[in-house]
Q: What sequence folds into this?
């Protein structure tokens, strides 16, 4: 009696087109993940997007591919139950001795290799592009044109956006992408504000971004700074002021802790409360020194009660409290034109060039194209009508002035987004905005009578003023205004310096507008 023939084994449920597609997704994601993993372990530089792609994105795609494989098997099982006699997808017979089968096999291998390679290469290029400045500034974030253009003109133009706004690690990457998802919604449905508001309240702490390049414990001492200001007169007269900025810094381990960067010393902890969106009003400050002594200062002009202080959100001071525009700087027209003069991009021999340039830069415009035309027409018309001979002999300088003033406008003013230098306060210094004087105004007093001083010599020492007589330059001392302001000398710089043209008295003075301030404002 012969043995019964064995029952043939049922073909695998994997044999269906849906599962084959899932397998292709698994293979491509696995190849991409392995490639990025090798890049990560061999790279010497941390990348904020690499880890998230390697350990989150591509494993998620791989799991999706496995889900497709399982889904195909479930569907195939149901199909076989409904129709047991139906044909089952057969594997192709492989006989390498058959020329036709051999050619098909090698074509399959070649296509598979190209597919996996293309997937890996495409994944790398996608990661590389999403990590680029162009992606942040132009492709996805068109609404960020003001930030992108100003960034290109900033001292951090070679630092990528993601290094500050994301940084390494999956946690901050996820936060940035969640924020980006809302931004995408805002752009799609035109819900974004004009201008984009600052500061960014969920920005990564400066210790994890700025201090990766800058050295907070380094003692820098005093640094020489030269300020060049050009007048609004016919000669665009130059006045230079040279100061020693007491940058200071340091660490208790070296024994040198002084100057402006005292605020950033790791042994000092400064906490404050702001009552406005731009952090310009600071009615309460707390200082904890290296010995653990705590002093609270209250603004006597805008005092907060103890209950209000307890309830208010508090922020610890770091780099961006003063350097709040490190990469997106919208400079005042006055400062921009001065810098162009100093760099010889504007010709100081063109009469009243600063006055006319500032006048054109500060006009209200609806669009950028309207502004560029107005600048060109305005400068050409001024010199053509008032300086006929010069207009022909200095045509190249006038043409260059038009181009430079247009460049200044395009770099720092964006009418469509309602952005200019006044919409984004800059806290470095105190010339155009309160800056240092947000706290160092002489009005922040502790309960024991200790005052946050506003003494000029705390931060800088004037060592030269081209407008001062030699005997004054021979003596270093506090800054003295070139005009005797009388009782107005106690006012902050921002009261008069508006960054958009000569000071205009709030009262129409008529014929006496040419008088010196001291002729009316006498010392008490």
A:
């Amino acid at each position: 009696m012969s043995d019964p023939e064995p029952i043939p084994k049922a073909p695998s449920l994997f044999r269906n087109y849906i599962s084959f597609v899932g397998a292709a997704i698994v293979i491509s994601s696995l190849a991409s993940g392995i490639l990025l993993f090798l890049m990560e372990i061999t790279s010497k530089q941390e990348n904020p997007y690499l880890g998230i792609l390697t350990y989150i994105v591509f494993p998620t795609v791989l799991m999706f591919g496995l889900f497709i494989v399982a889904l195909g098997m479930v569907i195939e099982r149901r199909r076989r139950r409904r129709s047991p006699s139906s044909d089952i997808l057969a594997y192709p017979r492989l006989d390498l001795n058959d020329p036709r089968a051999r050619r098909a096999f090698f074509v399959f291998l070649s296509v598979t290799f190209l597919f996996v390679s293309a997937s890996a290469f495409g994944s790398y290029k996608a990661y590389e592009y999403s990590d680029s400045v162009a992606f942040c500034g132009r492709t996805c974030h068109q609404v960020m044109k003001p930030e992108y253009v100003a960034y290109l003109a900033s001292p951090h133009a070679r630092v990528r956006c993601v290094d500050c706004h994301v940084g390494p690690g999956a946690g901050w990457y996820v936060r940035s992408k969640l924020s980006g998802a809302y931004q995408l919604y805002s752009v799609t449905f035109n819900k974004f504000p004009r201008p984009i508001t600052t500061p960014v309240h969920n920005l990564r702490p400066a210790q994890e971004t700025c201090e990766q390049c800058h050295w907070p414990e380094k003692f820098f001492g005093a640094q020489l700074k030269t300020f060049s200001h050009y007048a609004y007169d016919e000669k665009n007269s130059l006045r230079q002021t040279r100061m020693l900025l007491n940058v200071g810094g340091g660490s208790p381990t070296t024994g040198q802790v002084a100057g402006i960067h005292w605020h950033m010393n790791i042994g000092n902890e400064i906490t404050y409360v702001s009552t406005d969106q731009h952090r310009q009003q600071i009615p309460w400050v707390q200082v904890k020194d290296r010995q653990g002594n705590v002093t609270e200062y209250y603004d006597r002009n805008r005092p907060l009660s103890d209950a209000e202080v307890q309830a208010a959100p508090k922020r610890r001071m770091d780099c961006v409290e003063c350097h709040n525009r490190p990469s997106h700087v919208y400079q005042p027209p006055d400062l921009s034109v001065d810098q162009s003069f100093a760099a010889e991009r504007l010709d100081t021999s063109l009469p009243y060039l600063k006055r006319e340039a500032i006048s054109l830069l500060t006009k209200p415009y609806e669009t950028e194209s309207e502004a560029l035309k107005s600048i060109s027409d305005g400068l050409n018309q001024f010199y053509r009508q008032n300086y006929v001979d010069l207009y022909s002999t200095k045509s190249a300088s006038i043409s260059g002035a038009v181009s430079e003033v247009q460049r200044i406008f395009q770099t720092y003013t964006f009418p469509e987004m309602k952005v200019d230098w006044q919409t984004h306060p800059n806290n470095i210094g105190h010339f155009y905005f309160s800056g240092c004087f947000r706290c160092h105004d002489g009005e922040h007093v502790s309960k024991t009578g200790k005052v946050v001083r506003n003494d000029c010599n705390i931060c800088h020492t004037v060592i030269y003023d081209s407008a001062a007589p030699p005997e004054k330059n021979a003596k270093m001392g506090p800054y003295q205004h070139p005009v005797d302001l009388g009782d107005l000398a106690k006012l902050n710089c921002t009261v008069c310096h508006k960054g958009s043209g000569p000071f205009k008295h709030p009262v129409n003075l008529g014929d006496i507008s040419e008088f010196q301030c001291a002729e009316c404002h006498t010392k008490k």
About this structure: Residues 481-524 form one domain. The first helix runs from residue 17 to 42. The beta strands are 222-230, 238-246, 269-273, 284-288, 294-299, 315-316, 444-446, 460-465. The chain has a mean pLDDT of 81.
